[in-house]
Amino acid sequence: MTDPSDDTSLAEHGAEPRDLPQPPPLRISPQTSLFLDFDGTLVDIADRPDAVVVARQLPGLIEALSQRLDGRLALVSGRSLDALETLLGPLGVAMAGSHGGEFRPAAGGEVYPLADPLPGSIVEDLTGFALANGGLLVEPKPFSVAVHYRHHPHARDNLLARAEDLAAMHGLKMKHGKQVIELVMPGSDKGSAVARFMDLPQFSGTAPLFVGDDVTDEDAFRAVIRFGGNGILVGAMRPTAATWRLAGVAAVHDWLAAALEEKTKA
């Protein structure tokens, strides 16, 4: 759900867009590939990134779907791969972390960087800003740094201005999500990660689906369209390149689980 305080709110786009229909049932077939965001899609967003609650059945559900799809499933998240595995355990699936900066094409395989590491001076600058503005939460990652202002909404405008200055000075991309502003190295975006996966033999020629909730997932929604696929927005309706919408995390779990149940019946 897009927060009304964010610069991506519906108010800036005029009238609220027409709602999207629910996606059709997920088909387990050789023509299907599936990409899943994490926060806001597979787990509900929490006050702190480390406070999310992972449903007990979720890791097994993800691995079972990946097996049924013969490996044509990948998690594509803004979190680092280490953070994902801390929360989910050592999942046997492909992953891209740090908005695509970290790329692991196969379960247990080598991790390839798709971007240069983020200079430490940028983390230091934003850490100083955070301390001077009430103690905002700074989340360093290998190829990006996120600053969460959920508990300090008054700091939003100054944080946005500081992030824009740093992005211009260092040639970074800035992403504004749900009460978080993130600076990322060039090459770190979910669309690039999807395109890289689609170049792999197991994904090539399939119709990809990307399931995500935030404006940072729009790069991926546009990417799957280029490959003949579709995006699925999770949460409240907003301007989006997605084709379909699911109401929330619980609806995503149900949609994924139903695919396994149908395959078992077949």
TrEMBL record:
Region of interest: Disordered: 1-27
Entry EC no(s): 3.1.3.12
SUPFAM superfamilies, sorted: HAD-like (SSF56784)
Catalysis: reaction(s): alpha,alpha-trehalose 6-phosphate + H2O = alpha,alpha-trehalose + phosphate
Pfam families for this protein: Trehalose_PPase (PF02358)
Record keywords: Hydrolase, Magnesium, Metal-binding
Entry keyword annotation includes Magnesium: yes
UniProt cofactor(s): Mg(2+)
Superkingdom classification of source: Bacteria
Pathway involvement of the protein, from the record: Glycan biosynthesis; trehalose biosynthesis
GO molecular function, one term: trehalose-phosphatase activity
Purpose of the protein: Removes the phosphate from trehalose 6-phosphate to produce free trehalose.
UniProt family annotation: Belongs to the trehalose phosphatase family.
Descriptive protein name: Trehalose 6-phosphate phosphatase
Gene name for this UniProt entry: otsB
